[in-house]
Write a sequence for this structure.
């Protein structure tokens, strides 16, 4: 279900979703794919990405707010499974905010008390 757009063909996260690039899958359903971050910033650092390509969280929120809500639900399920339900969720939106892959993704961080 990865986008057939030019962005979707070249996007690293679209390639991960398609299985062209290996990842450690944490969760998958028809709408989302979640996998361990390659450079974790917490004991548990999972990326939750929609299978359809959207550049950032703002674009996703405008196009499909129910998918954004679903991503939050997926994050909660991951946190429930690995760390009694507590988690931090971060969306970097734009290069100046630290976004380096322009396929919307939520960083789900948990597994320890966060400062």
């Amino acid at each position: 279900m990865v986008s057939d757009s030019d962005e979707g063909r070249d996007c690293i996260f679209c390639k991960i979703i398609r299985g062209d690039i290996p990842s450690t899958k944490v969760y998958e359903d028809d709408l989302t794919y979640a996998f361990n971050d390659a450079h974790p910033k917490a004991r548990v650092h999972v990326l939750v990405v929609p299978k359809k390509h959207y550049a950032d969280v703002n674009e996703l929120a405008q196009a499909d707010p129910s998918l954004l809500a679903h991503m939050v639900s997926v994050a909660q399920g991951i946190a429930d499974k690995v760390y009694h339900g507590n988690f931090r969720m971060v969306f970097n939106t734009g290069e100046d905010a630290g976004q380096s892959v322009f396929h919307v993704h939520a960083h789900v961080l948990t597994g320890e008390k966060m400062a």
